[in-house]
UniProtKB/TrEMBL annotation:
InterPro entries on file: Cell_wall_metabolism_enzyme, Dup_hybrid_motif, M23ase_b-sheet_dom
Species of origin: Streptomyces griseoaurantiacus
Pro residues bias spans: 35-55
Coiled coil: none
Signal peptide positions (record): 1-20
Pfam families: Peptidase_M23
Compositionally biased region (Gly residues): 25-34
Disordered: annotated span: 25-56
Keywords in alphabetical order: Signal
Domain of life where this protein originates: Bacteria
Upper taxonomic lineage: Bacteria, Bacillati, Actinomycetota, Actinomycetes, Kitasatosporales
Protein name: M23 family metallopeptidase
Domain M23ase beta-sheet core: 85-183
Amino acid sequence: MWAALLLATLTAAVPAGARAGGVGRGGVGGGGEGAPPPVSAPPPATPAPATPTTPVPALARLWPVGVRPVVLRGWEPPASVYGPGHRGVDLAAAPGDPVRAVAAGRVSFAGPVGGLGVVSVELTGTGAPPLRTTYESVRASVRKGDEVAPGDVVGFLAEPGPRHCASGCLHWGLRRGESYLDPLSLLPPWLLRRGPSRLLPVPDVP
């Protein structure tokens, strides 16, 4: 009986933290060898950028309308996914002008969006997700699933609507997944130049 009483007295004298986790390098009951390691909170997620940083290959060899149309409004990338901006370029054109595919691909959509006719073409060999060009506002002459080659007519420019250009223009866009890109980056530098180079006379040096 005396032995049991002595054991109970010694057990009560030991701190509870020492009995549970032992006395280790972390102190009495403070995360020693018997205590689980502290769990750290995961770092906050970084929001995806509005536009990817990967370069766009210059695949096109022609403009979607005309020969060298005037760019009435350029690409204005948004600061965030839902921020304001101009997600494409507006090219001067007249109603009825043919709208052509700038590169080979497959029609992924052809139909009205918000009352305006839109044609989208997924460009061949541009990775996953593929680059996708959009043409608005057009009367489509193709259907979803059609394969198109560079220069193929995908539709005809519709009458001017309430958006973009009151006098008539094609809104040309480029996307990869949900990210908007500058469609002019599809064009090589020589096609972006406004006209042929002209040599100027060299002034006489006395």
